[in-house]
Amino acid sequence: GGTVRVADAQGAPPTIPFWLGEAPARSDELSRAVSDFRAEVEQRLADASSPAPRLPEWLTGDNGIPAGAADQLLEYFAEGRRVLGVIPTQDTI
User: Which of 40, 47, 61, 93 is deepest in the core (most CB within 10 A)?
Assistant: First the structure.
């Protein structure tokens, strides 16, 4: 836990780092649900004039997220969308 081991590459070309997780992998169903949630947030951020409930109300009401957490999620998604131009999902990278 918290230990990083480094070895001399002996002149080998660099590679992309990787690590093994300790927790079990996320299920396909949970991955799809997270992706669908992110897509819904993207749609609601893109369409501010939508008749659907505003994003903060949707997060707190329909999803039961506390107001403070909803504000943090909104900031996280809005900033990610600003920087990347889109909120990544399983269908959009």
Answer: 40
